[in-house]
Amino acid sequence: MLVELLLAALLGQQPAVPPPAPSAALDYEYYRTRVQPLFLEKRVGHARCVTCHAGSATLRLQRFSPGAETWNEEQSRQNFEAAVAMVVPGSPGASKLLRHPLARAAGGDVFHGGGQHWMSKNDPDWQVLSAWVNGANLASFMKSAPDTRVARIVQTNAAGDNIHLIDPATNKVVGVINDIEVPHGVTASPDGLRLYFTNESLHTLDVVDGQTLAVTARIHLSGRPNNVAIGKDGRRVYVGIAQAPGAVDVIDTVSLTNAKSIAVKGAIHNV
Do 76 and 32 meet the contact criterion of CB atoms below 8 Å apart? Predict the structure, then answer.
């Protein structure tokens, strides 16, 4: 008993944390769609999570396959298990995944090698993680998500690396999307949860979360893109390829992959 008391004192008398529940207690599809993209997000002043955690001992994220900008299904499953090991289901405050990058003043850890990514628990990214730890699943999220769509003018800055969102009622910038160099075309999913931008610098279609305004995926294209359009059901995005010999790339928005490249005669600007 004396040894146990001494050990408790040496550990700062921290309360015991219950062991994580099995992975099945946390929804994989919600994780893959809403949580995992946060590890790719470029936050101002910080490196992406994946930059430090790919192959690391703590929150071990898988390295991308050669030429890939995101994880495949097998790698996503492995990342899921790594994330599950960092949380206590039902208790965001006790979960290291949420506590470690949170500002100390907001209840975060004393030190995080990657800095303080969230100044408050009200940060949209922190809220996504909190919902997952509290048992959110993708099916329920899609049904219960309130319709928060509002009119916005999307101004791509073709000579820069960001996009401005403008409120047409006030003519003021109300949001900025960063980390897309030489953006060209833009379209949105019917539900407003995603924006799609053609990236002339990387020759990718960049996927942006409509709520957090973070780049969550980059899909490689067959050449330098121009404009972009989306099907009525939101399941396909069509990208005009201006680079010779020209093409229309068809993007599957469920798997976020380049499903097909349709050959055409000559460069394509509008689709």
Answer: yes
- What's the structural domain count of the chain? 2
Residue type, 75: Q
Smallest CA-to-CA distance from 230 within 248, 258, 251 is with 251
Q: Are residues 128 and 219 in the same domain?
A: no
Q: Is residue 270 part of a domain?
A: no
Pairing mode, if any, of strands 162-167 and 172-178?
antiparallel
Tell me if 207 is assigned to some domain.
yes
Q: Which of 27-31, 42-46, 113-117 has the highest mean pLDDT?
A: 27-31
How does DSSP classify residue 17? P
Q: State how far the alpha carbon of 136 is from the alpha carbons of 18, 83, 88, 101, in Å.
A: 20, 15, 14, 21
End position of a domain, from candidates 125, 144, 163: 144
- Which band of pLDDT confidence, cut at 50, 70 and 90, is reported for residue 3? very low
Which residue range is the domain that position 161 belongs to? Answer: 153-263
pTM (predicted TM-score): 0.66
Structure tokens at 13: 């008398």
Residues 133 and 165 occupy one common structural domain = no
Q: Residue 15 pLDDT > 80, yes or no?
A: no
Number of helices (H), then strands (E), belonging to the chain: the values are 7, 11
Mode of pairing for the β-strands spanning 183-188 and 162-167: unpaired
pLDDT in tens, 176-186: 999 999 999 99
Supply the pLDDT for residue 14.
Answer: 46
Check if the beta carbon of residue 69 is closer than 8 Å to that of residue 220: yes
- How remote is the C-alpha of 257 from its chain's centroid? 15
* Domain termination site, one of 87, 121, 144: 144
